[in-house]
Amino acid sequence: MKRIPLLLLLAACAPASEPLPPTLEDTCGAREYGDLIGQDVTALERVLILGPVRVIRPGDMVTMEFLPDRVNFGISEDEKVIEVSCG
Prior knowledge:
Layout: H1 3-12, E1 53-56, E2 71-75, E3 81-86
């Protein structure tokens, strides 16, 4: 029981996590692919994208690093593009 207050004190001293980067800027050119929203995921096969790309389906595990030049495509359970963003 004597260790609990010590653990709480140490937890309070932990550095605060860094704030998430702003995602409002179009640093990767995501607007260029906005017309793909609502289309079947196979539409991505017809688009040439020069640079890093990440396709994220429901239940996929994704890393938390933010790459401003990477285009992320969010895919719905029915295999439709539902989001295009940078990061």
